[in-house]
Amino acid sequence: MSGNKTIARDILQAVEFAADKHRDQRRKDRHGSPYINHPVQVAELLTRVGGIDDLATLLAAVLHDTVEDTDTTFAELEEAFGPEIRDLVAHVTDDTTLPKAERKQLQKEHARGLPDRAKLIKIADKTCNVRDIGRSPPKDWSEERRIEYLRWAASVVDECRGVNAELERYFDECLASSSGALGVRQISDEGL
Questions:
Q1: CATH code, domain with 86
Q2: Does the annotation mark 68 as catalytic?
Q3: Which residues are paired to 26 by β-bridges?
Q4: Selected catalytic residue, list 29, 68, 94, 158
Q5: Catalytic-role residue among 44, 69, 76, 173
Q6: Predicted TM-score of the model (pTM)
Q7: Is residue 95 annotated as a catalytic residue, yes or no?
Q8: Distance between CA atoms of 1 and 21, rounded to whole angstroms?
Q9: CA-CA distance, 89 to 118, in Å (whole number)?
Q10: Model confidence over 92-139: pLDDT tens digits?
Q11: 186 part of a folded domain
């Protein structure tokens, strides 16, 4: 099998796995989009904007929410995709047994020490979420909660900077657009 066919097979296997795991989930956006749209968008953004063609990074991007948001285990990921993918997903997975505020703080604190490939996934994930806040925010989120999320996302991405200028530039554009839609001129992490 040629290299391109192997890559295509591996990516489609990850998409199928993630689609099955997220099959009953919807995004929090106004339209309740199928959840699988999000991890696919994260991987697509890495390729289109970031120029990323590293297979492990793309596979982990597609799978990045499976352990955190479904009944998937790290052992299951390793069995299906190997230890490298398991480890990358582990780097971007929150411990859901902790309170939400603590998870958010830990995500910010740990971001700087992540391996570069995990930072790329983290930036793309936050970019997609920030873009969604501006385009189709969760229907039950107040303006204050959306601004708070944008500030927090910016603080996490700030800790990941230095790995991909184009991806970081695009995050900044999405942040400016979404904050502008909320009537906020500049988002910073002051007061977080």
A1: 1.10.3210.10
A2: yes
A3: 34
A4: 68
A5: 69
A6: 0.94
A7: no
A8: 28
A9: 8
A10: 999 989 999 999 999 999 999 999 999 999 999 999 999 999 998 898
A11: no
